[in-house]
Amino acid sequence: MRRPAELAPTKIIGVHLSYPSRVEEYAARTPDVPSYFLKPPSALARHGDEIVRPRGCRYLNYEGEVALVVGRRMKRVREEDALGYVGGYSVANDFGVHDFRHADRGSMLRVKGQDGFCPIGPDVVDADDVDPTDLALRTYVNREVVQVGNTGELLWPFAYMLADLSRLITLEPGDVLLTGTPANSRPVEPGDVVEVEVEGIGRLSNRIVEAKEGLADVGAVPEDTPNARHVALAVPEETV
């Protein structure tokens, strides 16, 4: 059964590196355990919403992902029981603007947490109707395939990540886990249409627009740094 993605999470949790292709792309060391970050609920957007790139920014990247929606309260849940707490699955795009990577000391609040930077939808499919170990994912920019992945490739299965998180953080019904993105996240431009498709779940579509107004003259400003280019373009930092 599927239902519209009308979500009201207390928290949205993202995982950093979870696909081997992403690790290889950055020539990174394969992590022993997952690491996570938070996106505020105000980052939520819907299928069809416009995604706003702040003025002065160049590196607004898409990240096509499977979104896992918690169905009931999770606290210290064992890995073998964890999938029984999932309410459903949806499609997400974990947008980030890497021009702010120099700010916030690793929290990525400005990078990943801006309003609208987490579109999810158009539907949530009941967990009983989904095989989470074999979900094919594709991301398109202007109808061209730019990312391909399958949850069978993940470094850690969904159950492991849920059990890991619930050891220390209580997950409430409606909370969202963004399960990571495969290789080839790249910047998009105003006018581009980004679509993320998860086979059997749905296809999420959003258009990129430029902010109508510039940022207020307070706080951190966008910077075109070597680290921003390294992450946004997946090139060695020493070359940029």
Structural summary, described in words:
The protein is an alpha+beta fold and 240 residues long. 13% of the residues lie in helices and 31% in strands. It is built from five helices and 16 strands. It has a seven-stranded mixed sheet, with no helix packed on it. Strands 5-16-15-12-13 form a five-stranded mixed sheet, with no helix packed on it. Strand 15 and strand 16 form a beta hairpin. It is globular and about 45 Å long. It starts with a strand and ends in a 7-residue tail after the last helix.
What are its keywords?
240 residues; alpha+beta; Fumarylacetoacetate hydrolase, domain 2; seven-stranded mixed β-sheet; 5 helices; 16 strands
The second-level CATH architecture is Alpha-Beta Complex
Count the E strands.
16
| Shape summary | globular
Q: What Rg is obtained from the alpha carbons, in whole angstroms?
A: 17 Å
Structural class category: alpha+beta
- Main sheet properties: 7 strands, mixed
Query: What is the H level of CATH, i.e. the homologous superfamily?
Result: Fumarylacetoacetase-like, C-terminal domain
Query: Number of domains in the coordinates?
Result: 1
Low confidence ranges: none
Order of helices and strands: EEHEEEEEHEEHEEEEHEEEH
| Euclidean distance between termini CA atoms | 48 Å
Count of discrete alpha- or pi-helical segments spanning 4 or more residues: 5
Give the averaged pLDDT, no decimals. Answer: 95
